[in-house]
Design brief:
alpha/beta; Rossmann fold; six-stranded parallel β-sheet; single chain; 6 strands
Length: 149
């Protein structure tokens, strides 16, 4: 059984809801999951599959609960070459920094050696009152990219 670590970064809770919903869908499909809301670097496995879901606030800023993880990776420069991950951003296209947080996370992860599976899913809250819906559609495609499936 493949274990997937879901990482959420949220200011108002939408990314947490999306991560929890996707964890349920993954478990229904036979995966085991661990969901961490705003984890510390030491909370994460140094290999395997991660799925990060992050909202954006301010001028493309990361949610406060993801800043410690982001800063730790930036400063400690861990080798994430044994990590593969998926990325979902939630934001509003009203801002020119739409989904800026997930783009920053993606650059940090790939710069640390992690390999993204698939494209970043960017969910515009102006188009989707329930961001879980487009995230679930994306997840169905992403699961097909997973190793050992």
């Amino acid at each position: 059984m493949v274990d997937i670590t879901l990482i959420s970064g949220s200011t108002l809770g939408s990314a947490e809801y999306v991560a929890e919903h996707l964890a349920e869908k993954l478990e229904e499909a036979g995966f085991s999951t661990t969901t961490l809301h705003g984890p510390q670097l030491e909370d994460l496995p140094d290999e395997g599959l991660w799925l990060v879901v992050s909202s954006t606030h301010g001028a493309g800023d990361l949610p406060d609960n993801l800043l410690p993880l982001y800063t730790a990776i930036l400063e400690k420069k861990p080798d994430l070459s044994r990590v593969q991950y998926g990325a979902i951003g939630i934001g509003s296209k009203e801002y020119d920094t739409f989904c800026g947080a997930i783009e920053k996370i993606d650059q940090l992860f790939t710069g640390s050696g992690a390999v993204r599976l698939g494209e970043i899913e960017k969910i515009n809250v102006l188009d989707h009152d329930i961001p879980e819906d487009p995230a679930e559609i994306w997840l169905d495609s992403w699961k097909k990219l997973l190793p050992f499936v």
